[in-house]
Inverse folding.
């Protein structure tokens, strides 16, 4: 069976990178810092790295020399991640990068052995329950902290409000939970499932809100996000296409004029292995 890959474009990742950086919960990095070794090389595995936005955000916030192992199935995105290096570290130490092309839902059990930290950003909603369980188990086996940022939680807010917003939001969420080639995606349920699975394996999980707040200065991202949001909703519920024609035109005009404010809610999770438990 061929599994349909949902490809993510370089342009979309570049457009959203500043909003992602502004949204991530920086206080979790403080908690993380207390659990990382004070000396020596940090080996950080970034799962579903795309073009490497997570590394460019986090590497300069952590002190000490770092080696980032970037994992993605998309060779084109990986090339950008390997070329557009993160760093330097917070104390000026060097940062190196290694790219590994693979399907992160099929990692061998010891692929992440020796990691000091595992990260992922904007990834979990694309997985199924079983795929996430497998990934959680490989991460827990590594016995190190895991930082998972920017998982969508199915809450958006548009200002000014419109009566169609709620219907489009519901259809979009249903699209996120759709079945693709026999794989039922978790969409906005991924956060709750990840928390449950990491806790079951003995992890302590800290959860923070991490919201995109898009206004006049993010008009291009707002328009791009809105177009994808409505498009997915209409793909899910075809009768919405005719109903949203005028709505979409109006919203895009508002975005272009800097008159549309959008909040897209996400959650960030920091998983800390409990000191009194062996990794599962
Ligand atoms: C929304 S993008 C986020 C990219 C990056 N983490 C960021 O925050 O900018 C999701 C990334 O996960 C990758 N991805 C999704 N499923 C994957 C899988 N099963 N194995 C490897 N990479 C995967 C996609 O190719 C894409 O680069």
């Amino acid at each position: 069976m061929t599994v349909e890959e949902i490809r993510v474009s370089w342009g979309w990742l570049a457009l959203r990178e500043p909003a992602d950086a502004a949204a991530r919960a920086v206080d979790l990095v403080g908690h993380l810092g207390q659990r990382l070794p004070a000396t020596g090389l940090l080996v950080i595995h970034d799962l579903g790295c795309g073009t490497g936005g997570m590394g460019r955000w986090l590497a300069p916030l952590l002190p000490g020399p770092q080696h980032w192992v970037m994992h993605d199935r998309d060779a084109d995105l990986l090339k950008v991640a390997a070329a557009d290096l993160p760093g330097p570290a917070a104390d000026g130490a060097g940062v190196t990068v290694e790219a590994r092309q693979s399907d992160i839902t099929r990692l061998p059990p010891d692929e992440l052995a020796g990691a000091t930290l595992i990260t992922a950003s904007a990834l979990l909603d694309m997985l199924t329950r079983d795929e996430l369980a497998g990934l959680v188990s490989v991460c827990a086996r590594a016995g190190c902290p895991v930082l998972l940022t920017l998982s969508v939680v199915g809450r958006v807010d548009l200002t000014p409000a419109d009566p169609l917003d709620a219907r489009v939001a519901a259809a979009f969420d249903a699209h996120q939970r759709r079945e693709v080639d026999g794989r039922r995606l978790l969409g906005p349920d991924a956060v709750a499932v990840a928390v449950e699975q990491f806790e079951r394996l003995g992890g302590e999980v800290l959860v923070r809100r991490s919201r995109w707040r898009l206004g006049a200065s993010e008009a291009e991202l707002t328009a791009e996000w809105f177009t994808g949001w409505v498009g997915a909703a209409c793909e899910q519920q075809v009768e919405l296409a005719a109903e949203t024609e005028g709505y979409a035109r109006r919203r895009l005009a508002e975005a272009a004029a800097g008159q549309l404010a959008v909040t897209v809610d996400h959650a960030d999770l920091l998983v800390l292995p409990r000191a009194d438990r062996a990794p599962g």
Observations:
- The chain has a mean pLDDT of 95.
- The pocket of S-adenosylmethionine is lined by residues 8, 13, 20, 48-50, 53-54, 72-74, 77, 103-105, 121-123, 126 (CB under 6 Å).
- The first helix runs from residue 10 to 23.
